[in-house]
Amino acid sequence: MQGCDETMPGELLRAVEQFNRREWFECHETLEELWVGARGELRDFYQGFLQVAVALHHWREGNYKGAVLLLEKGPELLRRAPPICQGVDVAALIAAAERLRATLVKLGPGRMEEVDDALLPVVALPARG
């Protein structure tokens, strides 16, 4: 059984690359495949990451309520995982998602397109050695 202390599987690498290319819907699809077979903290990690990706997809599509809701729920699940899970800096992803959510709430639904691109989360890939 895989856990957070394992190395990053190829499917997760693909999801991170999709996320960073802002292919959030595709990232969600990739993470869903991982999430279905996972258990415990790993399942929470995959589902939380998936929800952040879907939140960003909602933001791009102009769905304010969906974006704000999932930028709350995703980090809640991610907090159940350790700060680093399969090479992903979970703590940094939580912080980025929460900054984006706070900005969206401040802007409101009428100004959500004003979000600065620099606030969009990016997942750093672990160094390969």
Characterise this structure:
With 129 residues, the chain is mainly alpha-helical. It has a single domain (10-119), classed as Hyaluronidase domain-like, CATH 1.10.3450.10. Helix content is 62%, strand content 3%. It has five helices and two strands; from the N terminus they run ααααββα. It has a two-stranded antiparallel ribbon. Strand 1 (84-85) and strand 2 form a beta hairpin. The radius of gyration is 14 Å and the shape is globular. The chain starts with 9 loop residues before the first helix and ends in a 22-residue tail after the last helix. The model has no long low-confidence stretch (mean pLDDT 94). It comes from Geomesophilobacter sediminis. InterPro entries: DUF309, TTHA0068_sf. This is DUF309 domain-containing protein. It holds the Pfam family DUF309.
Q: What can be said about this structure in brief?
A:
By secondary structure, the protein is mostly helical.
Architecture blueprint of SSEs:
Layout lengths: L9 H11 L3 H14 L2 H22 L2 H15 L5 E2 L2 E2 H18 L22
Antiparallel strand pairs: 1-2
What key phrases describe this protein's structure?
2 strands; globular; single chain; Hyaluronidase domain-like; mainly alpha; 129 residues; two-stranded antiparallel ribbon
